[in-house]
Amino acid sequence: MLYDVAVIGAGPAGSTAAKFCAMRGLKTLLLDRQIFPRPKTCGGGITSAAINTIGFPLPEHTVLSQVHKLRSIINNKTVSIPHPRPFMVITERSVFDNFLVEKAIEAGTDFQQNENVKGLTKEDRYYTIKTHHNSFKAKALIGADGVYSAAAKLAGLNSRYKSCALCLTTEIPAKSNHSLDEIQINYDLLPKGYGWVFPKGDRLTLGVGCFEGSYGMLRKALTKLAVTTRSETPDIVKGHYLPYSGQSPECVGDGIILAGDAAGFVDPFTGEGIRYAIISGMMAGETLWNCYRNGVPPNKKNLAGYLNKCHQGFLRDLKYSYMLARTFFAFPSVMHRFLSENPKMYSHLLNILEGRYSYKKLIKDVAVELPKYYLNLPKYQFSRTGQIRE
Q1: What is the 3-state secondary structure (H, E, C) of the chain?
Q2: Computed over its alpha carbons, how large is the radius of gyration of the chain?
Q3: So where are the chain's domains?
Q4: Cα 390 from Cα 388, distance rounded (Å)
Q5: How would CATH label the architecture of 54-90+164-243?
Q6: Is the pLDDT of residue 244 over 90?
């Protein structure tokens, strides 16, 4: 069979793109190298903004808890920020991703799992996709197979990112008194990074991420984070990389589009990728559908509009997220105290996770208020590195 589109990678970007294409009558193939439901290294936090982009509510079995509170910690100073609405849900990624795949299948997608793509050959009007077990043909491709996309590499796209953040995660038993509606963020574990604690019923997911750091540094930070939860040193630790410096140098090629992590679409400040995976998956599907609907070939020229959609939809705002990240992690003590003493600013951050506010607006707010706050602090409170002395 010759498919109209083959989507490589069945994470949120791939399953969303496949569902979009199949719902519009395109013959859609979805490939993944693993068997679903499969384990996925991730904290499991899905923002309300990400859920809203899906277009339908999550069933109860996919949601472990709803988050209404944020606990932020730096230099032994704790700030608790309640929020009037849930800004995040906690889920098991294996369950969440499988649910999205099931939705794609319901729409008419042909899902082939345990198919590791090993080769791509571009013919005149279609690609031949070779896996360990089979061979498939498709007129166009969507590469949604993660930060080190095999689809991008095999198609000859330049998908090397300027920078990637290393993240480590683990799971530990939860204490009986741990709140299920609160997440914890630690900003004092390592430079230019943070740690997180997400509740999952009788378990906690702990993680650390850093823009510049070694595995050893992150491993020590993860152990220190476990101590804050009064838990033992974690035995099983998993790692993954997140691109944080912006889009991949080449997201579109002749008959191929990259989406999600494969395209580098990750929030530089929070590390959130699922929201942008879902949005870019939809946009990739829409771009291909428009080609077929208008009777034009899905070549590089006709697919170029995809990047314009992404810029208008979210990439422009993520540039301001990058600015915030650079500022925050250059002066974490100053920024943490500034935010904690300006509850409205923290509220704006949580509103961003809901999709109710933008980084552009937040940066403007910070640009106005931060100099006033900084100048009002006594000079003796600052060390030579700009950190606040207690």
Answers
A1: CEECEEEECCCHHHHHHHHHHHHCCCCEEEECCCCCCCCCCCCCEEEHHHHHHHCCCCCHHHCCEEECEEEEEECCEEEEEECCCCCEEECCHHHHHHHHHHHHHHCCCEEECCCCEEEEEECCCCEEEEECCCEEEECCEEECCCCCCHHHHHCCCCCCCCCEEEEEEEEEECCCCCCCCEEEEECCCCCCEEEEEEEECCEEEEEEEECCCCHHHHHHHHHHHHHHCCCCCCCCCEEEEEECCCCCCCCEECCEEECHHHHCCCCCCCCCCHHHHHHHHHHHHHHHHHHHHHCCCCCHHHHCHHHHHHHHHHHHHHHHHHHHHHHHHHCHHHHHHHHHCCHHHHHHHHHHHHCCCCHHHHHHHHHHHHHHHHHHCCHHHECCCCCECC
A2: 22
A3: 2-44+92-159+248-303, 54-90+164-243, 318-381
A4: 6
A5: 2-Layer Sandwich (3.30)
A6: no
Rounded distance, CA 128 to CA 255, Å? Answer: 12
Domains 2-44+92-159+248-303 and 54-90+164-243 share a fold: no
pLDDT digits (tens, 9 = 90+) for 77-118: 888 989 999 999 999 999 999 999 999 999 999 999 999 999
Are 164 and 243 in contact by the 8 Å Cβ rule? The answer is: yes
The highest-level CATH class for domain 2-44+92-159+248-303 is: alpha beta
Query: Is pLDDT above 80 for 388?
Result: no
Tokens for 390, please give them: 């207690």
Q: What are phi and psi of 163, to 5 degrees?
A: -150, 145
Each residue's pLDDT tens digit, 338-371? 888 888 888 999 999 999 999 999 999 999 988 8
State mean pLDDT over 236-265.
Answer: 86
Could you tell me if residue 255 is left (phi over 0), alpha (psi between -120 and 50 degrees) or otherwise beta?
left
Q: Measured in whole angstroms, how far is the alpha carbon of residue 81 from the centre of its chain?
A: 23
